Amino acid sequence: MAMQASITHWTTLVVLVCASLIHAHSVITYPGYRGNNLHTNGTVAETNGLGVAYDPKNGSYIFPYGMEWIYPCGGMPTSTNRTKWPIRGGALAVQPGWFPGHATALIYVNLGFGETPENMSHPVVPPFLITGPSNNPYPGTFCLPQVPLPANISVNVGDKATIQVVETAKHGAGLYNCVDIIFAEVDDPEIEEVTRDNCFNSSDISFQYMYTTAPIGSGAAMLKPPQNTLLALAPILIAVAFGALM
Ligand SMILES: *[C@@H]1O[C@H](CO)[C@@H](O)[C@H](O)[C@H]1NC(C)=O
Ligand SMILES: *[C@@H]1O[C@H](CO)[C@@H](O)[C@H](O)[C@H]1NC(C)=O
Ligand SMILES: *[C@@H]1O[C@H](CO)[C@@H](O)[C@H](O)[C@H]1NC(C)=O
Ligand SMILES: *[C@@H]1O[C@H](CO)[C@@H](O)[C@H](O)[C@H]1NC(C)=O
Ligand SMILES: *[C@@H]1O[C@H](CO)[C@@H](O)[C@H](O)[C@H]1NC(C)=O
Ligand SMILES: *[C@@H]1O[C@H](CO)[C@@H](O)[C@H](O)[C@H]1NC(C)=O
């Protein structure tokens, strides 16, 4: 019974996702992404409830709940087509409304260092809450024009890293997306220019800062709420309509 409902639910998702794919968008819209992971296949019965399992008949993996839920990069392995990103940090644009259940979503942005990072344990901005127009899939992006590097981490031109974006749904499950980067000089012509077309805040997605217990390093600066709110005991809502800033 529950499984039936679940399968129906996922069939609906697949249909919605396929419909969205016509627009050929990705979750991380700037500076790029590992590849399309808006994909669900196999059944929960085949994996006995696991999020991912090897299908020996087919010689590949199946993701009955959807690839995007798999830590750390939504079922996608390290890519070879890295994109250049400024050595002092740069822009990050995300389309958060791909799946149902994201009328509100917590967003985390982390870095992992190296060719294939051992972990994604370097947060670069404090987690924040977004509010979208609907619990159904919706278009639109938010963009952080200057995501800094973690405090006390220095990188060189040519160093490799991975940017991980985690987006929790209303029920708490996390969607994972990554882009593999290679650090480049700020004025490297191969860094895709940041423009109003690839880095913008949609007017119907708003930010709400979260209660933070402690600064997390240099990354805290850009999204830091006013000082007095740090004392609050509950999430602080400082809704800022994106559109107002652009
Ligand atoms: C890397 O290649 C994949 C598969 O072709 C593509 O979907 C993705 O956009 C590429 N990513 C970058 C950063 O170029
Ligand atoms: C795996 O199965 C899918 C359909 O379920 C099929 O499209 C695909 O070609 C198969 N892959 C292999 C390697 O057999
Ligand atoms: C399931 O989808 C993944 C991602 O597209 C693919 O790599 C894999 O081969 C698929 N598995 C089957 C059994 O079709
Ligand atoms: C995460 O990986 C880095 C190397 O990129 C390492 O220095 C650090 O100790 C690791 N942190 C944790 C919590 O494992
Ligand atoms: C989008 O809104 C956030 C939060 O207010 C802000 O930090 C960021 O700079 C805005 N992005 C753009 C492109 O204005
Ligand atoms: C950065 O390094 C300084 C000096 O070693 C230290 O006091 C500070 O706590 C470090 N910050 C972080 C976020 O690790």
UniProtKB/TrEMBL annotation:
Membrane topology: Lipid-anchor; GPI-anchor
Pfam families: BIM1-like_dom (PF20238)
Keywords from the UniProt entry: Cell membrane, Glycoprotein, GPI-anchor, Lipoprotein, Membrane, Signal
Lipoprotein keyword on record: yes
Signal sequence, renumbered to the chain: 1-24
GO cellular component terms given for this protein: plasma membrane; side of membrane
CDD domains, sorted: LPMO_auxiliary-like (cd21176)
Keyword Lipoprotein: yes
UniProt xrefs under InterPro entries: BIM1-like, BIM1-like_dom
Cellular compartment(s): Cell membrane
Coiled coil: none
Source species of the chain: Penicillium cinerascens
Name of the protein in question: Copper acquisition factor BIM1-like domain-containing protein
Domain Copper acquisition factor BIM1-like residue range list: 24-203
Protein origin, superkingdom: Eukaryota
